[in-house]
Amino acid sequence: MHIIRNLILFFVCALFIIKVQAQTPFISQNFNNTQFFNPASVGFGSYNRFSSIYRSQFNNVGRPYKTIGLNLDFGFLKNSGEDMNNLGFGIQGISEQILDGILQTNSITATIADRIFFDDFGMNYLAIGIGSTYINRTINYALLNFGDQFIQGKLVNTSSLDIINKDQSKNTINVGFLFSHNNDNAFFQIGASAYLLNRAQNQQTYKDTVEVDISQIMGQLNFEHIISGNKSLLVHANFQNRYEKQYYYAGAAIGIPFNEAYESTNRMYVGCFYRSKDAVVPYIGLLVNKYKLGITYDIYNNDMTEANLRPQTFEFTLSTYFGKRRNEGMRSLFD
Questions:
Q1: Which domain covers residue 279, as residue numbers?
Q2: Residue 29 is assigned to a structural domain of this protein
Q3: 197 pLDDT tier (thresholds 50, 70, 90)
């Protein structure tokens, strides 16, 4: 019965989609960090997992925009034999910093997920997750070098930064579902998520009202398949609908095996992705024993390059896995 209630909760939440505002981090390797975008993904990999993100955006243009993220997720209430773990739990923290930390947005999310198996071997299942996020925005007034433009809690010239509200905290409810298939030669996932944001309205005054709406919708597709010579073909695509912006992100990579052993699959990944109307993103990744490393560099194709600006955006991800292996399916970069 609890599974049916979770299904009803998700679809009821999905019915309240009104408009969109950015919520989850804007990164280039979300295929390595699904848990930051879809609460249904926590706790159901081959191992428990700790992962991290570091993104430095627009270097060489000014003081960069930085994103730092940490995640821990694990399965619990699991048994050996036929009874596979049905519950997953995760906690994620994100810090986004502008101008060397003058303006910071920090958030922490706690997530729980459940899943339904469609076979006796655990190869096919539907996961449903729900989480809650607390968001806090701070500004370091001491580091501002335009103090004469800052009066009584707001900027006189509002074209550079949004008005800073008296209430700097927000919270969200996050819901998502994810279907997964994993066998000896292939790994497949498809899912979607939505974020309900509790945000202030009427931001030109101190008498803000509070309105709850959908802040982001995301759909994702992950696929990796063994091809000739034990190489693998990896394909990822996602669509995100954020405030004033909709975009898709898609691409592929080849996984080249090295130093393989019975208990581990080691691959180097080389590929490229494209974010619509924004950037081409080359990618290099490593899957080594219980570690996963990824590096991307965004090559922008927007008006900044036409203005002779050459912004540099690097992103690094590092994950490590711990605990006993929970299934014998293909070890995938998406796992």
A1: 2-256+265-322
A2: yes
A3: low
What pLDDT is attached to residue 8? Answer: 38
- Spatial contact of 27 and 283, defined as CB atoms under 8 Å apart: no
pLDDT digits (tens, 9 = 90+) for 111-148: 999 988 888 777 899 999 999 988 888 777 666 555 44
Residue 291 lies in a domain: yes
Total structural domains in the chain? 1
DSSP 255: E
333 is a domain residue: no
Cα Rg for the chain, rounded, in angstroms? 21
CB atoms within 10 A of CB 17: 13
DSSP structure string for 156-207: SSTTTS----S--EEEEEEEEEEEEEE-SSEEEEEEEEEEEEEEEE-TTSS-
pLDDT digits (tens, 9 = 90+) for 53-64: 999 886 665 566
Strand partners, 97: 66, 104
- Residue 159: pLDDT above 60? no
44, burial (CB in 10 Å: exposed 0-12, middle 13-18, buried 19+) = buried
Of 309 and 276, the structure prediction assigns the larger pLDDT to: 276
- Taking the C-alpha atoms of residue 233 and residue 186, their distance in angstroms, rounded to an integer, is 10
Domain assignment of residue 334, yes or no: no
Q: How far apart are CA 30 and CA 42, in angstroms?
A: 14
DSSP notation for 310-329: --EEEEEEEEEEES-----S
Residue 309: how many CB atoms within 10 A of its CB?
Answer: 14
